[in-house]
Amino acid sequence: MTAVGRWSIVYLIGALPVALALWDRALLAWLLVGSAVCAFAGWRLYRLAPSIRTVVLLAFAVRLLAFAAPPSLSDDGYRYLWDGYVQASGVSPFAFTPEQASDLGPSELLERMNSPTFFSVYPPVLQAAFALSAVWSSDWRVAWYAWKLVCLGGEFLTAWLLIRLVGGGGALMYLLHPVSWIEAVGQAHSEALLVPALLGAVWLLRRTHTATLAGIGIAVAALVKLYPLILLPLFARTWRAWAISIGTLLFLSAAYLSPETILNGLESVRLFGAYLEFNGGPYIVLKAALWEWIPTLGPHASRVLLALFAAGALVIGYGYRTQPVRATFWIVALYFACSATVHPWYGLGLLALVPIMRPIPVWMPAWSLLSLTTYSRYVWGDELYWWGISITWIGALIVAALSAWLRRVPRSSG
């Protein structure tokens, strides 16, 4: 058996306890150990440069292992399906909170979802995908797997785009990173649709005759998750590109646009921003420092970080104005560094950009892997969760520092 074959088997052995742990969050230790094994085996495979066929087969084998899992590490999936059922009833998901329209969807979803008193914050492209999943069955368990098929389709498109952009070796960095298939398929997070939209923008930008259309990818990404809107100036470089991008936004949003939709959506975004905090390492440090040294600014830590992000994004955008992909990576990285809530799956867009970057920002795959430790909050309580936050952010900083140091050390020619 070849070395590629041996390490592929090791990878699958690591994936098995991860897939089992996705059925029960109490098995988090299995998930962490299995993910570490997968990450190491994936690194070895990257060094061995396997064929594109091997990478794709292995990547989708583990995604099929994760496909059967229920929502376990996150309850977002219940809200996805609720919004879908509300639309299947002919009602806008932005018109009422779940508690105000409790008869429009299965009661089990209402009982299990988070924030039933908030209006939906999910943009139109996602809403259309939720509706498509809900019409498959009145049984939410069946609809869950219909939604997972949509996510799996997004991962197929991601694989195709990465192979076109960086080849099989580069694609492996995302496709075989355990967080990619745990979150995009195992827990079916909406980033499964964000990633191909973002990569599609990069692919269109790099093709001379389609560069004007790159803003379409960003527009679609922004209608999956709102934050890619800040990237539009990097990809829409001409008036024609702006017109195409804005036209795409309006066309895909038309079915949901109304003053009520906009106001209710913005209200929920404000509430989520005000009340939710998870794994925001820099935010936690700044908030504690402000309360200690400048108490009047303590309650406004998020606003201070927002101002820092705005200034930093302008500097990055200007400094890398001729390198939109590099600017995209660092602006999004800064955005999450300045956020109060950074769940493990939030990093999938950045993780997909890693293979395109030079030099490779190895701290990002490390951050993604270490962020899985923050799930300890749901299993082992807050004390270990704080350790998880520390491990995630300090670990990524250590990897970044070591990587920068190694690049500066001259290599021996002998």
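^ that was protein a. below is b, sequence first then the tokens
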Amino acid sequence: MINPDHNRIDTLFKQTFFSFKHKDFVFLWLGMFLIMTGGQMHQTARGMLVYTMTESPTILGSITFVEAIAMLIFGLFGGAIADVLNRKTVVLVGQFVTMGLAVFITVFAIIDYLYWYHLLLAAIIQGAFWALTIPARQAMIPGIVGEQNLGNAMAIVGAGTSAAVLIGPIVGGILYGAVGPKGVYLIISIISLSGFISTSFIHRPADTETNLDTKKLVKQMLNGLVYAWKVKDVFVILFVGFLIGLLTNPLRVFLPVLVVDTYQKKSEMLGLFVSTLGLSSLIGSLSLAATGNWRRGLIFIISGIVCGFTVVFTVSMPVYWLALLLLLFFGLGEAGQRVLSQSLLMGRVSDSYRGRIMSLQEMKLGMMFLGALPAGVLAEFLGVELTLKILGSSAVIVSMAVLVKGRNLRRIM
């Protein structure tokens, strides 16, 4: 006799991972996951390596800063290139460069000729090619899984990103201690090569490709900005997602301060807090994959409210185990904002503009990162706890206003 519970679990599993029935999507997802995991390992190893070399927090911060700047500068061009050239080719070139940088660092480390400015240069190149690659990869998804499966596919991609963010730093830190920078970058090179090979197996029909002309590229870029401005739904999703992220992302930035000063815990507790965020983000992404296209617009708005409230309550209750519980909800809200903004945008943008709109989505993340600077200045005057309460409350107000006024967004399935 067949167990009904077993059937329900099997059905839920198939519904959650439905997009994996497309072989090309499996290759695309696996390539993305491997590159992202290697990238997270690189971030951890680079931070340790740079600080060991220089003992300078300024140089360490500068390398991260220039990488973010490169992503912002090349972001719009990346979207325009993704809408002009063959997207699979763009992704493969970006992954090849990523692999090449890992090999470069490995070789220079082996011959004892690696200095911090080599890592600075690699960060600029890496940031530029991430900006060129990500929009092309995201824009390929609708052509592989179909418009009707976009919600599920984007959620699975989000789950892969969350898993890479959760696993990569832990593995990178362990390997760095076990085999040193030479060994860890050799492993990153192998992982990057595996991601490149996986992506190369995609057999979907080629995109329409035209000659790359600089004047046309700039025009394409400007057309993308005009398109985002004129299409109301697209503008609202981009703007609301950016604003909520700008107001709630400082919680991540100030976690070290909260751990030590508010919760009176040792700095080691920070790892548990970050892991909790990564785990809850992974759970949120998989949950969204299971729901498919059900009330995506409404969930997107509610996730902003959840993020705002959890920021306020996290700093209002100076008990670390309550903070851990609240961070679970914050991670779920972040997953809703990130995954649903991508799938909602994909469903409302014509294929010829998808690369440019997804580049705006990725640039939004870089701008949120840079937004931590004014939040830090405000915290110097008002204190971290009051600053986060103000920002979190503002996120709730913005989300509530969108919930009341954004009828079209609420109704999007």
